[in-house]
Amino acid sequence: xxxxxxxxxxxxxxxxxxxxxxxxxxxxxxxxxxxxxxxxxxxxxxxxxxxxxxxxxxxxxxxxxxxxxxxxxxxxxxxxxxxxxxxxxxxxxxxxxxxxxxxxxxxxxxxxxxxxxxxxxxxxxxxxxxxxxxxxxxxxxxxxxxxxxxxxxxxxxxxxxxxxxxxxxxxxxxxxxxxxxxxxxxxxxxxxxxxxxxxxxxxxxxxxxxxxxxxxxxxxxxxxxxxxxxxxxxxxxxxxxxxxxxxxxxxxxxxxxxxxxxxxxxxxxxxxxxxxxxxxxxxxxxxxxxxxxxxxxxxxxxxxxxxxxxxxxxxxxxxxxxxxxxxxxxxxxxxxxxxxxxxxxxxxxxxxxxxxxxxxxxxxxxxxxxxxxxxxxxxxxxxxxxxxxxxxxxxxxxxxxxxxxxxxxxxxxxxxxxxxxxxxxxxxxxxxxxxxxxxx
Length: 440
Hints:
Layout: E1 15-19, H1 26-33, E2 38-41, H2 45-53, H3 56-63, E3 70-74, H4 82-92, E4 96-101, E5 119-123, H5 129-132, H6 138-144, H7 148-151, H8 156-173, H9 181-193, E6 197-198, H10 201-208, H11 212-224, E7 228-231, E8 247-250, H12 253-260, H13 268-290, E9 295-299, E10 309-315, E11 318-325, E12 350-355, H14 380-390, E13 399-400, E14 407-408, H15 430-436
Parallel strand pairs: 1-4, 1-5, 2-3, 3-4, 11-12
Antiparallel strand pairs: 6-8, 7-8, 9-10, 10-11, 13-14
Helix pairs in contact: 3-4, 6-12, 8-12, 9-12, 10-11, 13-14
């Protein structure tokens, strides 16, 4: 692996917060972005204790800097009270701050000064394929993850084990997040088993053997320390009721395997789950880095257990539905013959499937969802942002769309083949629908 990996994160012009899980490379990349900045590392225990006792020392240190200087405060969540001073120096000295943190827990408390819009909020994620280039391979990514601290280690298994212990010691015990550290440690592997599943807190509490309210607190800890994130269910005023439980995803497949104690390469069942979670994390990363979408959700009506859209992206009035699956695995996308109703969130959307063929990079799929796409140009904006960014090794040529008279091209989405009603397609005859039925 190269000594320095160029990250996709680009800092804003003004002051900003930069959040990311421990080991995601925040400090390294900030030193690269701001080589001449005044650096304040709150992991330095001596400095941390001095500022804790007397915050005026922090103010005096900033006062000595030239007007308009750049200041990096690393692990700012350890002393949120310093943000009052940061606010003052932005106003009076025009200092520019880069404030990094591996936890948002203390910063979410009421009364913490979040600089009232004077600092943008940004995120740094584990490596994505575009950053790693030729060094990227899917199989080791699903086995060990893509956290920089693990990716560059000589022994990735030992690095992952040490990372989990560091998390329990430094993020949980040292910050006094929970008084029951053994109970939280027992909860972690059970929470990892829910990776990629709709979150049922009662079921998780029953499996963990703790109270439901305790599990809710533990889940909030995982989210606050940036280990997990929820994927909400798509909600709209529809005729069909959706499942409203969010899905739980971990930010890195290596963490899922580490906390569950998995050894050796993942088996076929776990590979599909890890791959789906990795795609979810990729979409989050490109939403933050490139703004490919405004919202990210999944869609699954309660009336059908066989109908689900893994990821539904929205940008403005555009939507894209994505199905992630291993090549050769069963699909959970909408059946071809069951066209959605006009009120369905997957009406008038484009769709691609991301496959994981034998450890290679994800490839642009060869299926379009059964939607009523009215025109090619109407979907070009979000499609052009999504495909080149997320599926970085996609073929530039057009890809045949199975079961439809058209192709999905980089420049946009074709009008769908004839559908039953709706704009952009004529009503299909009963003979045509029978011909497409399975087993016909």
